[in-house]
Amino acid sequence: MSIVQRTIRPQVPPKGEYQLTEIGEALRPTLRALLDWADLIAIDFIIAIPSATQNMGIGASPEVVA
User: Fold this and answer.
1) Which helix (H) or strand (E) holds 26?
2) Which of 17, 53, 54, 62 is 20 to 30 Å from 29 by CA-CA measure?
3) For 5, left (φ over 0), alpha (ψ -120 to 50), or beta?
4) Residue 61 lies in a domain
5) How many domains does the chain have?
6) Pairing mode, if any, of strands 4-9 and 15-20?
7) Is residue 43 part of a domain?
């Protein structure tokens, strides 16, 4: 049972073709909904990342110890 079927064509160079199986096609609406949701919240993450990394000390200059 798989989501994607791969077919290799015997040529030089070899060529691989990929196609969704019936199970993969059944997942299409769910994956579309997930992508639509991700698009909606992406801007929130883009805005939140710089402040979150600053609070964790990521990207900050290292302290110089004398």
Assistant:
1) helix 22-55
2) 17
3) beta
4) no
5) 1
6) antiparallel
7) yes
